[in-house]
Amino acid sequence: MAKLESFINKGDMVYSAVSNKGAYWHIAHSLKVLNGISEVLKNSKPSDYHPKFSWTKFIIMNTGYIPRGKGCAPQHTLPQDKITKEELLVHLKKVKYASTKLKDLPTGKTFRHPLFGWLNLKDTLTFMKIHTHHHLKIIKDINRSY
């Protein structure tokens, strides 16, 4: 969270050679994903879990690498309109609170990823880290251009 927060304070940088979206978009998307997954986990039922093997999941979860420009995020995770520093700080506060509750969740909690399929709690937490790291790398590359 601290890394995302540090980039909020640098402003909404844009560098189209790295990404068509600015730093604030990547931060907002990451926060929406973290908050959304936290909510789903909290409300999930172990009986919903129906895992299937996925090569995409296997590769990304074992390498920790998400290729740029290949993903297709669900509409509800895409930031809309102009994103302000104040909005990001509010979302960051919500995510910080939600993340403190994650460690108290029972191990039977699950999340259905749109591409990977069902993830158990451990894999979901790993995915959240990988996804956030992916967007932090993009933000860092945007920042380097300034």
Write up this protein.
- By secondary structure, the protein is mainly α.
- It has one domain: Four Helix Bundle (Hemerythrin (Met), subunit A) (Up-down Bundle).
- Helix content is 54%, strand content 5%.
- It is built from five helices and two strands; from the N terminus they run ααααββα.
- It has helices at residues 2-8, 23-43, 55-63, 85-102, 121-144; strands at residues 110-113, 117-120.
- Strands 1-2 form a two-stranded antiparallel sheet.
- A hairpin with a 3-residue loop joins strand 1 (110-113) and strand 2.
- The longest helix is centred in the C-terminal third of the chain and has 24 residues, at 121-144.
- The mean pLDDT is 95.
Secondary structure elements and pairings:
Layout: H1 2-8, H2 23-43, H3 55-63, H4 85-102, E1 110-113, E2 117-120, H5 121-144
Antiparallel strand pairs: 1-2
Measured between the Cα atoms of the first and last residue, the distance is 22 Å
Number of domains: 1
User: How many β-strand runs?
Assistant: 2
Measured as a percent range, the helix fraction is 40-55%
The biggest beta sheet is recorded as: 2 strands, antiparallel
Strand content: 5-15%
CATH topology descriptor: Four Helix Bundle (Hemerythrin (Met), subunit A)
Poorly predicted ranges (pLDDT <50, ≥5 residues)?
Answer: none
Q: Which H/E pattern describes the elements?
A: HHHHEEH
